[in-house]
């Protein structure tokens, strides 16, 4: 089965579109959003990321989808599932991830989207577990992982190979959740 959209009470998770670039740049250019994710992106880098995500529709069954707020059609972040990053302990696993506009933190959007993404994954993918990673300093993300019922997998914590040595974002924590009974 291929992804189409996932709709929740307040959100639509969908494939990326070229017209999402302005909203994505708002997030990618916000130092609050990027503080635990990596450097702030300039407009060209941000646009290139959207172009990459748009292109994934041709080659991937699932990705970190655009998170659109139903009330106004604004892209407020991303959430979804993708293949685990190469060179990490979750390579070959299914990874869940999210990113949200800082102005909307604490309003339950990330959790709503993550729960819907997990539900889609359990219904659609033949996997026994779904994994998540984040910088050790990203307490907001690993806090959400725990609220979702994910368990810490300290035996899989690692230094992310895509992050420069000495960067405080290099140490990553790993969480996983098993398929519900």
Helix-residue proportion: 25-40%
Along the chain, the helix and strand elements come as EEHHHEEEHEHEEE
Judged by helices, strands and strand pairing, the structural class is alpha+beta
Distance between the termini: 22 Å
Number of helices: 5
Averaged pLDDT, please?
A: 94
CATH superfamily: Gcn5-related N-acetyltransferase (GNAT)
| Widest sheet, order of strands | 1-2-3-4-5
The structural domain count equals: 1
Query: What is the CATH domain class?
Result: Alpha Beta
List segments where confidence is low: pLDDT < 50 over at least 5 consecutive residues. Answer: none
What's the CATH architecture name? 3-Layer(aba) Sandwich
Rg, rounded, reads: 15 Å
Query: Biggest sheet, open or closed, and with what strands and sense?
Result: 5 strands, antiparallel
CATH topology: Aminopeptidase
Number of E-state strands: 9
Shape: globular
Relative strand content: 25-35%
Topology, please?
Blueprint: E1 5-7, E2 11-14, H1 21-28, H2 31-34, H3 43-59, E3 64-69, E4 75-83, E5 94-100, H4 109-124, E6 129-135, H5 139-147, E7 151-152, E8 158-159, E9 171-178
Antiparallel strand pairs: 1-2, 2-3, 3-4, 4-5, 6-9, 7-9, 8-9
Descriptive report:
Helix 1 packs across helix 3 (43-59). The protein has a single domain (5-178), classed as Aminopeptidase (3-Layer(aba) Sandwich). The radius of gyration is 15 Å and the shape is globular. The longest helix is centred in the N-terminal third of the chain and has 17 residues, at 43-59. With 181 residues, it is of the alpha+beta class. It has helices at 21-28, 31-34, 43-59, 109-124, 139-147; strands spanning 5-7, 11-14, 64-69, 75-83, 94-100, 129-135, 151-152, 158-159, 171-178. The chain has 5 helices and 9 strands.
């Amino acid at each position: 089965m291929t992804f189409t959209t996932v709709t929740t009470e307040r959100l639509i998770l969908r494939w990326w579109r070229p017209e999402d670039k302005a909203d994505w740049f708002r997030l990618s250019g916000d130092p609050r959003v990027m503080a635990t994710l990596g450097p702030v992106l300039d407009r060209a880098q941000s646009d290139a990321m959207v172009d990459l995500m748009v292109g994934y529709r041709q080659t991937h069954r699932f990705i970190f989808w655009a998170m659109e707020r139903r009330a106004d059609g604004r892209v407020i972040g991303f959430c979804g599932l993708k293949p685990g990053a190469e060179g990490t302990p979750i390579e070959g696993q299914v990874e869940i991830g999210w990113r949200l506009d800082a102005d909307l933190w604490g309003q339950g959007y990330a959790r709503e989207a993550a729960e819907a993404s997990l539900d889609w994954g359990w219904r659609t993918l033949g996997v026994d577990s779904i994994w998540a990673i984040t910088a050790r300093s990203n307490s907001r993300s690993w806090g959400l992982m725990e609220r979702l019922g994910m368990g810490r997998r300290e035996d899989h914590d690692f230094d992310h190979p895509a992050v420069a040595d000495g960067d405080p974002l290099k140490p990553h924590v790993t969480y996983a959740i098993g398929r519900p009974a």
